[in-house]
Design a protein that fits this description.
Largest sheet of chain B: none
Number of helices of chain B: 11
Order of helices and strands of chain B: HHHHHHHHHHH
Shape of chain B: globular
Order of helices and strands of chain A: HHHEEHHHHHHHHHHHH
Shape of chain A: globular
Helix content of chain A: over 70%
Radius of gyration of chain B: 20 Å
Largest interface: A-B, 33 and 37 residues
Strand content of chain B: under 5%
Largest sheet of chain A: 2 strands, antiparallel
Strand order of the largest sheet of chain A: 1-2
Strand content of chain A: under 5%
Oligomer: heterodimer
């Protein structure tokens, strides 16, 4: 058995190994969250039920809209339903991995909990953004996949492997971009103290992802692509699956995601310098 | 001094105190109201696109635009958010200390409701004004001040109705441990049935009889319809009558449930 007194290999301080340690740490967070979830089975059940009701009612506007017309700007009813599925998947993933963390941002700052995080031998931004995982929300991802498949089947779309790869990469970029946008809004807590209402702004803005980008006026489309990039999370992946999207939006998405990550990193460092601890 | 006058005086004092307290967070109210108008604006853009694209809606562009511009205001004015907090007060025994005070705990929640709405008004009205101005060409503005008066009366009725429904759900905490799932369900179901997501005029024909008469229509949709829609004089009177009926019925049920709950209440930590 290894004890702390035993001889250990010296810490590998290379950059790659540092990243690897964070991945391992995240796996521990996940394992702990799964164990924790098994203690609260009723919570899992209510999250599942509420999620299903939400999905059912969330699809109502789309169904009503296509009751009055057969296509809007090149989108058929089935494709719009597939889009609602994609939206459900992405919001489910955000609610699982990101929301439980960014919703705590105000507490971290106003109650001085950030002090304890800063002392740990881990990237504080990583810890703050990914520490808590709400496993129950994954049920919404599952129901989203079902809706997506139903929509695609109804539309008669059978995506090839290349299209699936494109869609997954685009949705991944969408997740990174949405996380960056929400983090940027949350990190304003360094200057504003309380950012709980900002979570509400995020949740309401993201609703735009329920509808295809083409349904909005041009100025709003630009906003939803570059400023609040929900288009990468829903519209572009579904377009990739239905086959009318080249590789250039994928390249654009990856480029934007990298820029967003760099910017959010800079914002975090800038904010951290203004942090003057709430306790002590 | 009779009870009503005393309660009103307490309410006035508490509302003033809450306003003073809450105005510390005036920045937060502005951001909250910004979130509040996001969904109506998204819906507005979507349905205008559908109309411009030749969709055969039963309502015209003026109706759609006026509806969604006013929607953000009416949902705010008739909203109630106390259920999870009041349920906590009951479950954790905070109600006990209010039972020996000269006013009900509910007076506190009424004052909280009024004061927050008063502050939200200052943040929301300029935002609605900007959206209104942007779409001024397709706004439907009734000329008669009577319509606007009825609009305000109907908002007051709607606000009382939402508050009472919220109270009924919170009162279940007298018998249940966790009402948060019920609260969530109420919010989700009400958002569709009240017309906050899609105008009820767009609901399919087969659901008309139900949709037009269920209580949630009278919490948001009906006040907006008074200004945006083409309700005839008869529809107006009938609608206000039904709304008042729902307010009275919900009020009586809430009174009975609350009284029964107080009798069933056993304080925690006392």
């Amino acid at each position: 058995m290894n004890t702390f007194a035993a001889e250990r290999r010296p810490l590998d301080r290379s950059w790659w190994h540092l990243q690897w340690r964070h991945v391992q740490l995240w796996r521990r967070f996940l394992a702990q969250a799964v164990v924790r979830e098994t203690h609260y089975r009723a919570h899992f059940l209510t999250t599942l039920l509420v999620g299903l009701v939400q999905l059912g009612l969330g699809i109502v506007p789309t169904l009503l809209l296509f009751g009055f017309t057969t296509e809007v700007h090149g989108w058929s009813r089935a494709e719009a339903i597939a889009l609602v599925g994609a939206f459900q998947i992405v919001t489910g993933l955000m609610a699982t991995f990101i929301a439980p963390n960014l919703n705590r941002m105000t507490t971290y700052l106003t109650e001085g909990e950030l002090d304890v995080v800063l002392l740990r031998p881990v990237s504080s931004q990583f810890y703050l953004t990914l520490r808590w995982i709400n496993v129950a929300e994954l049920s919404n991802v599952a129901s989203g996949i079902v809706v997506l498949v139903i929509g695609l089947t109804q539309a008669g779309i059978a995506p090839g492997p290349g299209q699936v790869v494109k869609a997954v990469v685009l949705a991944g970029c969408g997740l990174v971009l949405l996380t960056a946008a929400w983090s940027a809004m949350s990190f304003l807590a360094f200057w504003l103290q309380s950012v709980n209402p900002i979570g509400a702004v995020y949740l309401n803005l993201v609703e735009a992802g329920r509808y295809p980008l083409a349904f909005f006026p041009v100025a709003v489309r630009t906003f939803l692509t570059f400023a609040f990039p929900v288009a990468f999370a829903t519209t572009f992946p579904v377009q990739a699956l239905s086959g009318d999207l080249g590789w250039s939006p994928v390249a654009l998405g990856v480029g934007l995601a990298i820029v967003a990550l760099v910017l959010i990193r800079l914002l975090w460092r800038r904010g951290l310098r203004t942090y003057a601890s709430a306790s002590s | 001094m009779n009870t009503a006058v005393r309660n009103l005086r307490v309410l006035r004092r508490m509302t003033a105190a809450e306003i003073a307290q809450q105005s510390v967070y005036r920045g937060a109210w502005i951001i909250f109201m910004l979130a509040n108008i996001c969904v109506p604006i998204i819906s507005l853009l979507i349905w205008r696109t559908a109309l411009a694209n030749g969709a055969q809606l039963p309502i015209d562009e003026q109706y759609v635009t006026t509806y969604f511009v006013l929607l953000g205001f009416v949902t705010m004015a008739t909203s109630s958010w106390m259920a999870p907090f009041l349920a906590n007060d009951i479950r954790l025994g905070k109600l006990s200390s209010w039972m020996i005070r000269p006013a009900s705990l509910l007076v506190r929640w009424v004052s909280n409701n009024l004061s927050e709405k008063f502050l939200k008004l200052f943040a929301l009205v300029p935002m609605i004004g900007i959206v209104w101005w942007t779409f001024r060409d397709s706004m439907n503005i009734p000329a008669s001040p009577g319509r606007w008066l009825l609009f305000l009366v109907s908002i007051v009725f709607g606000a009382i109705l939402v508050f009472t429904i919220d109270l009924l759900i919170a009162a279940l905490a007298f018998w249940m441990d966790d009402v948060s799932a019920l609260v969530q369900a109420r919010v989700i179901i009400a958002s569709v049935l009240s017309g906050a997501v899609v105008p009820l005029a767009l609901m399919p024909e087969w659901s008309r009889g139900f949709v037009d008469h269920q209580p949630f229509r009278y919490t948001v949709s009906f006040p907006v319809e008074i200004v945006a829609g083409d309700l005839s004089g008869h529809d107006l009177v009938a609608g206000l009558g039904i709304q008042l009926g729902y307010v009275v019925v919900a009020g009586v049920i809430a009174r009975l449930v609350w009284a029964a709950g107080i009798r069933a209440y056993s304080a925690v930590g006392a």
